[in-house]
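thought: fold this chain, then report.
action: predict
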Amino acid sequence: MEAFSSPDAQAKEISDLLLTILKEKLKSLKSDDHQEASDYERLLSQIGELQQRVVQSAQAEIVQIEQAISELLAKVFPKHVIKLDPKIDVDLEKTLTPFKASPELLMGPEDGYLSRISEQGSGARRTLLWTALRYLSESDVAAAASQRPHVLLLDEPEICLHPAAIREARKVLYDLPKSGNWQVMITTHSPVFIDLSQDNTTVVRVDRGVDNAVRSTTLFKPAKAKLDDDDKKNMKALNACDPDVNEFFFGSSIVIVEGDTEYTAFCLMQEINPEKYSNLHIIRARGKGIIATLMKVLNQFSTSYGVLHDSDTPMAGDTKNPAWGMNKTILLEKARAAEGRVRHVACLTDFEVALFGKIQKTDKPYNALLKLRENEELQSAVSKLLDSLISDTEPPANCKRWSSIEELEKYVAELA
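observation:
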């Protein structure tokens, strides 16, 4: 279904979708449970037999016509003849049309006027499409009636839908292939339609280069990313907190940050320097534990990206600090990327201490925003840190590139 197809065309697509169930039922219907072939198959066989009888009865006339035309043809093209091929038993299904008129769907209030689908609004038509698809994906009747494989092509399914309807549409589209009989391909500008927690998602980005050549790049395949159950839980949680997290599929320069404060600070830099950071997308991991999961996804990309996180400390009081252990996991995912692809910086021991010189207990993003707006020196430091994540420039003091746990531990010890 095209994004801007006419109301009549969209109504026909929806009707045809539901008509497939009726057609499949027709092909499997048997008057007698003991008969081998369905009524439909027997009817097609009878049509084929009728064709053969007609051709046989007209064989003499056919031969006479062939000879007469061949004699005339030979005067222009010597030694050329014609033969009539009646195409018996070819595409017999096209000779039989049990339903001459297409079914018509009507929609409206229960006790009110029911109008044709083509007369409904765009949002209503698309919502009805999801309803029909959901029935096909969940209904046992539909599954039993349709065993043939289908391919569903949709252009920008998010158009004219409310946010809640977009999320419902995404669920329907991901559930549909689970029946085994459907493959779904969509084009979209909405990050909401990308759900990396699913096993059946392949993401291909298509864009136009400076030379106007159209290029496509496969950005993500579940088999290559190898997301484990914890990774999938992380992605589900992140999608729930931030529905637009997958916007990085649409950008070319990407930086992962651990928390809200870094995200707020870098967004302010984008606001202050819009041209410099015009094509930068900042991913807010909302926790150190999710950074490694996002790196698994980004390692499938063909471009470099930046990672910023707190170093934390090896010990939290008298016990080992779990946050420190996550440094090793992040380093492991960095090692799996191509050399030089990941620009990796740690704040000693966290972003607030490294940039502002003290720990902020409450309202960290808001307080960071106030300090940055009033202090050009802080703005320069944050801008320098952001630059180190998208280029090879050095980060500011107390923010370090590191390549081993021992090196990071040394930096933290020196700070103490």
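thought: worth noting. The longest strand covers residues 214-220.
final: tokens above.
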